[in-house]
Amino acid sequence: MLEIKDLHVKVKDKDILKGINLTVHPGELHAIMGRNGSGKSTLANAIAGQDSYEITSGDILFNGTSIVAESPEERALAGIFMSFQYPVIIPGVNNTYFLKAALNAKRKHQGKTELDAVEFLKLIREKLAVVEMDEKYLHRAVNDGFSGGEKKQNEILQMLTLEPALAILDETDSGLDIDALKIVAAGINNYRRDDRAIVIITHYQRILKYLEADYVHVLINGKIAKTGGENLAEQLEDKGYSWLDN
Amino acid sequence: MKTQNKTIEKVTSQDYQYGFVTDIEQDTIPPGLNEDVIRLISNKKDEPDWLINWRLKAYKNWLKMNEPDWAKVDYPEIDYQSISYYSAPKDKSDGPKSLDEVDPELVKTYEKLGIPLEEQKMLAGVAVDAIFDSVSVATTFKEDLKKAGVIFCPFSEAVQDHPDLVKKYLGSVVPYTDNYFAALNSAVFSDGSFIYIPKGVRCPMELSTYFRINAMNTGQFERTLIVADEGSHVSYLEGCTAPMRDENQLHAAVVELVAHKDAEIKYSTVQNWYPGNPETGKGGVYNFVTKRGICAGSNSKISWTQVETGSAITWKYPSCILKGDGSVGEFYSVAVANNFQQADTGTKMIHSGKNTRSTIISKGISAGKGQNTYRGQVKIMKNAENARNYSQCDSILIGDQCSAHTFPYIDVRNPSAQMEHEASTSTIGEDQLFYCNQRGISTEDAVSLIVNGFCKEVFRELPMEFAVEAQKLMEVTLEGSVG
Fold it and tell me: How is residue A113 annotated by DSSP?
C-alpha cells in the first residue's frame, strides 16, 4: 500500500531524513519510534505533502503510484490521512460543518452522492460513540477550546468518519491521560481492517499495549536503525535508544 | 510554502464575475453640474417648487464645503464637472405593470446575476422595486402592500403622490448640511425608494431593491427614505452588482430611516459593485454613502446589516441616533477589501435617550493588497442614563500584503453608561489551510469555510434568502482572497 524508497527530506536547508525505506502492506500496523528530532514527524508530514518539507531524492508510492508531485488534498482524497501531532484550531468553523465538508469532498471525489445533514448526523453519532465524545463537541469550532486529549479524540473521530486506506498517526498518544489513551486506542482498533494500514509514530511503548503492532521501527538520525516486533518496543522502554547509536 | 503563496495569488487574482454591460438605450444629460442642471433634473421629474428650492439650497451649501479627507482611503481627485448627473432608461409610455413589460435586456441582466425577478417573486414572496440606473422600472406586489396600507414606491412617485410625508421627513435625519456627499446627493438625487409603514402595521413581506449602475460616467445618487410609524415593523433589503467599467463611477447615496415609538426597521445591504481591475485597481466604483436612522420614539429599534464585498472605495457609516428612551440600535457588518479595494466603514451610535442600547459587530476581511478600516463612534450624551453599548471588531488577514485598521471612538458624558469593546485580528494561517487540505478540502473551499465561519454572526442577521446570496458572493469575492 505504502512504499517509501530511499527518501531524503530537507526542512529549511537542513537534511532530516537521510534514506528511509519502508513498505507497509494492507492490514499492517507499523510503529515508528525514536528520539525527539530523529525525523519521525518529518516522515509523517512528507507523506502527507506538507509544503515546507522538501523531498530531495527518493520516492513515496501509494498503491503503486508516486505521490510526491501530488498536492496534500490529492493525497488525502486518494486515501491518506494524517492525525496531527498538534491539531490546528479553526475558530468560527463548526466541527460538524468541517467534518461534513471533508467527508463530502471525499465522496464527491469517489463519485458518490454527498450526504445530507440528516444522513451525516446519523453517521457521526455512531462514530462519536466509538471515541466516547459528547455531541456537544460537534457544535464547537474545530479544536477551539479543546483540551489536548479532546483534540486527539477529535482527530480519531475524523479518521473514523473519513475511513482512509492509510492512517499516519503522528504522536496521537502524546499528552493523553490513561483514560483518553484507552479511548484513542479503541478508536484505532475500531478503524483497523484487513484492507487498511496504520503507521503510528510514538515516543512511548504504552499505547502499543493496546494495539497489536506488526512492526516496530526505530528512527535514528534520519534513518531506520532497527526493525523488529513488539518486543523491540519493550526493549526501548527498558534501555532507551543509546544502545542503538553507533 | 511557495506553492501555497501561488495558490493564494491565484485565488486572490480571479476576475470579477459579474462584469458585463447591458445594452439599453439611455436618456443622459451632458456632464457638468450647475443650477441649470439641477433645475433640469427637477423638471424631468416634474417636482414641486419646494423641492427644487431644497435642491438648490443643498447645491449652494455643497459649493461651500470641502471633500472630507479623514478617511483612510486614497483615490485620485474627482472632477465633479466631468460627471453626468442624470440618466434614465427610455421608458415605454407609463412604465411596465408586470415583468413582461420590463425591458427584456434588464431581466436578462438580473438573470445573469442569478437573481431573476420572477423566481424571487415566486419563491421568496419579495416585493421588488428594481432600480436600473436612476429610474425605477419595475414595481411588483404593490397590491398586497396597498391592502396593508404600506407605501412602497420610487422616491419620485412619492414626491407626486405623498408630498406631505416626503416634505416632512426628507432631510430630517441627514440634512443637506451634514456632509459633502450628502449635500451633493441632496442637490442631484435622481431616484430611490420611499417606504411608509402606517401605525401598528407589520409589513407583510420583505421589501427589496436591486441597485445597478450601468451608464458610463453617470453618477448614481440614490435617495431612500423609510418611515415606520408607531408600533410598525419593516425589513428592507438592498443588493447590487455593477458591470465592468474602465472608468471610475461615483456613487453617493443617502438613506434616512425614521422609527417612531415601538417601531422597528431592519435594513440589510449586500453590496457587490465593481471593485476595480484586480491587477491595477483601476475602474472600480467609489461608494460614498450616508446612511442614518433615528429611533425617534421610545422603545423603537433600528438594525443595520451590511455585507460589503464590492467597490474600489467604500466610505460608509450607517448610524443610529437613539433618541427615544429604551430604543435600540444595531450594526452588523462584513466588509471585504481584496486586491486594490479600500474600505473605511463602521457606524455611529449616538445615545441621547435613557436606557438606550446599541450593539456593533464588525467583521473586516482583508486580502490581496486590500486595506480595511473599521471606524466607529459611540457617543453617550449627558442625559442618556443607563446607556449600554457592546462593540466587537474582528479582522482577518489573508496573505501578507493587506492591512486592517480599527479606529473606535468612544465619547461618554454620562457616568451610568456601560461600555464594552472587544477587538481581534487573525490570519488565515498556512497551518489551517494544510489541515483542511489534509482532510481533502481544497484551499479555495478552506478559505471560504474559514471566512464564512468568521462572518456567521453577521450572516445570521440577514434574511434567509440574502444569507445564501451573501455566502455565494463571499465565495465569488474570496475566490479572489485566499481560496
Answer: P
C-alpha cell at A9: 527530506
Of A49, A52, A102, the CB nearest to B439: A102
CB contact under 8 A, A73 and B440: yes
* Whole-angstrom distance, CA of residue A5 vs CA of residue B239: 57
How many CA atoms does the CB half-sphere of A173 hold within 13 Å?
A: 22
Select the highest-mean-pLDDT range: B290-304, B364-378, B465-479.
B290-304
Chain A residue closest in CA terms to B5: A51
Q: Which of B438, B474, B482 to mutate: most A Cβ within 10 Å?
A: B438
Give me B479's grid cell. 475566490
* Interface with chain B: mutation pick from A41, A90, A146, highest number of B CBs within 10 Å: A90
The Cα–Cα gap between B116 and B111 comes to 5
pLDDT band at residue A233 using 50, 70 and 90 as cut-offs: confident
Report yes or no: B462 and B304 within 8 Å, Cβ to Cβ: no
Banded model confidence at residue B140, pLDDT cuts 50, 70, 90:
low
pLDDT digits 0-9 by tens, B57-112: 999 999 999 988 888 888 888 888 888 887 665 443 444 455 555 555 545 545 54
Chain B CB contacts of A84 below 8 Å: 435, 438
Size of interface A-B (CB pairs under 8 A): 79
Nearest-angstrom CA–CA distance, A61 and B279: 40
Residues of A in contact with B453 (CB under 8 A): 90-94, 97, 141
Distance CA A187, CA A81 (A): 15
3-state helix, strand, coil split of chain B in percent (to 5) is 25, 35, 40
The interface predicted TM-score of the complex, written ipTM, equals 0.96
Task: Using an 8 Å CB-CB cutoff, list chain A residues near B432.
Answer: 88, 90
Q: How confident is the model at residue B242 (pLDDT cuts 50, 70, 90)?
A: very low
Q: Of A19-33, A199-213, B15-29, B440-454, where does the model show the most confidence?
A: A19-33
- Residue A216 DSSP label: E
pLDDT at B445 over 50: yes
Q: What 8-state DSSP symbol labels residue B259?
A: E
Q: Which helix (H) or strand (E) holds B232?
A: none
Q: CB-hemisphere CA count at 13 Å for B388?
A: 8
Average pLDDT, chain B: 81
Nearest CA distance, B375 vs chain A (angstrom): 24
Parse chain B into domains and list their residue ranges: 2-478
- Cβ contact B364:B374 at 8 Å: yes
Q: Which of A124-128, B6-10, B257-261, B431-435 has the least mean pLDDT?
A: B6-10
Q: Are B278 and B16 in contact (CB under 8 A)?
A: yes
Are A72 and B434 in contact (CB < 8 Å)? yes
What nine digits make up the cell of A72?
496534500
DSSP A140: S
Give the mean pLDDT of A18-45.
Answer: 93
Tell me the average pLDDT of chain A: 92
Domains of chain A are 2-244 (3.40.50.300)
By the CB < 8 Å criterion, does B454 face chain A? yes
Cell of B451: 471566512
Chain A hits for B11, Cβ within 8 Å = none
Taking the alpha carbons at both ends of chain B, their separation in whole angstroms is 15
- Residue that the C-alpha cell 516496530 belongs to: A216
Contact residues, chain A, for B445 at CB < 8 Å? 101, 105
Contacts of A81 in chain B (CB under 8 A): 438-439
CA dist A106 and A117 (Å) reads 16
